[in-house]
Specification:
single chain, alpha/beta, Rossmann fold, UDP-galactose 4-epimerase, domain 1, 7-stranded parallel beta sheet, two-stranded parallel sheet, 11 helices, 13 strands, binds NADP nicotinamide-adenine-dinucleotide phosphate, binds ligand G4F
Amino acid sequence: MSATSKRALITGITGQDGGHLAALLHGKGYEVFGIIRGQHNPRRLITQQEFPYVTLIDADLTDSSSLVRAMQVAKPDEVYNLAAISHVGYSFKNPQLTADVTAKGVLNMLEAIRLTDKGGNVRFYQASTSEMYGGLEYNRPEKGYDEQSTFHPRSPYGVAKMYGHWITQNYRESYDMYNVSGILFNHEGERRGVEFVTRKISNAVARIKLGKQDHIELGDLWPKRDWGYAGDYVEGMWRMLQQDKPDNYVLATGETHSIEEFLTLAFAEIGITDWKPYVKQNPAFMRPAEVDLLLGNPEKAERELGWERKVDFPGLVKLMVTHDLTVEETKI
Ligand code: NAP
Ligand code: G4F
């Protein structure tokens, strides 16, 4: 890829996707800016050390003035809005905060762009989600959910993301802004937070192998997800912003697997075939409403963006357990 003089602003720089995207854009020659919130954010130092080429800007999605300032400092060609309260279970316990950040924060970011981008040249990516679909009871497409499927969110997080999705489209239609929504299915990897089920499992499996933990406590094991690798998905985000016209795209693998299947492959990596004695179910990790199955249809992204996922499901599990056997995370 040839060098570029483009500038990108990433919200959610300290999160899983923020890290992958910062590295990708830096590799393409972008000058990368990232929004970081909180005066005592422990991820500030880690981010500065891991991504020395990223200029961090103190801002918060709930503080409009800080976002205007971030736009003035970064003067970006592209804005990737990845920041959110992103944990579904947490959103049930903090629904108003979730609405403030994950819903209204998108509006705040769009307004900051509108107020500062006098030329109307900034391209905006919104991190929409498969959680907006809601599962089989509400929608049963033959080849998986696509850009035309009906939405029926099942959590405060999913409802907040619906607002972000539609306000992004509304500002595209109302103000002719270059706004895209990427409707991404679950994507995981070595940067995934340990509060999400795949990393919680890979981390626990590694610790069990190392003799540091004897079991893992989980919620429901039957839900199915379309799990891909985050590194593949940030490439898709970037491709969406390089098209002639803004549009919405699904990124997914087109396969769905249960948590039990993830457990089977993860424990197999450390030579354990019967994982049941190591797994306890704890209602604390169950949700008031669950999404039973997510399966995405990425045909449009494959056709129009030339996007394809490279890491398959067994490869993803292997990558995560192998990583966690060498880099220890906190026990949760
Ligand atoms: P993540 O690891 O949970 O990162 C979330 C980021 O948001 C963190 O950097 C966090 O910063 C930041 N943040 C939270 N509240 C903020 C606020 N008030 N102001 C500014 N920043 C704030 O999430 P991810 O997995 O990278 O996902 C990226 C985005 O894609 C999210 O919007 C998520 O909802 C969406 N998404 C993710 C997936 C997936 O499978 N990963 C699928 C579909 C959509 P702190 O360090 O300060 O907490
Ligand atoms: O790993 P999860 O927390 O991911 P979830 O709820 O699918 O949400 C993730 O993917 C969405 C895309 O579809 C993103 F928009 C969202 O930001 C996030 O990245 O849970 C996956 C499944 C759920 O069915 C959950 O109930 O695993 C189940 N689960 C069972 N035990 C658990 C646990 N989830 C977590 N986090 N922790 C458990 O102990």
